[in-house]
Amino acid sequence: MQAAAPIPFKNLYQRRRAATDRPCWVCGKPTQEVLTHSDIDFFFTCANHCQDPGFCTLSTASGTASSPFPPNTGAATTTGRAPAGTTSAPAAAAGQKSDESAATKPTATLPIPASYVLHSRIFSMRAAEYREKQRVKAKQSQLGALPSVPKQPLPPERT
């Protein structure tokens, strides 16, 4: 059994946003979030997976992992109640409608680009996929080196 070849990238991915939706690598739902390691390895993943500590952790500038959750500023939290200054129900309903329309629009609340460290099992699956792609490329290049099938028929046999 041969030893696994070392992979040319480290377990540090940048979170970016793509222009088109693609299926999530984990659950298959359409997403624009991409975790990438330069041009060597990339995969689409939902924003919820990036917050899951069993999937990845947010990496700080010093290279150590921290909590995967962004710091809470308190501005984005809602309790479902009308603000204290609002007393009329129609004004509160209009405010809720504008909040709902704002929630459907893509927002830039993500710290893009942010660095993430994948969980060891997830990273080993990514490394296995990378190695398999390299094996397929090597096999294709070896097949290209083989001689081609003769195009002319063989001469008749002499008896």
TrEMBL record:
Residues 61-110, 132-159 are annotated as: Disordered. Residues 72-95 have a biased composition (Low complexity). It comes from the Eukaryota. Residues 150-159 have a biased composition (Pro residues). One of its GO terms (cellular component) is endosome. InterPro entries: Vfa1 (IPR013640). One of its GO terms (biological process) is vacuolar transport. This is DUF1742-domain-containing protein. It comes from Allomyces macrogynus (strain ATCC 38327) (Allomyces javanicus var. macrogynus).
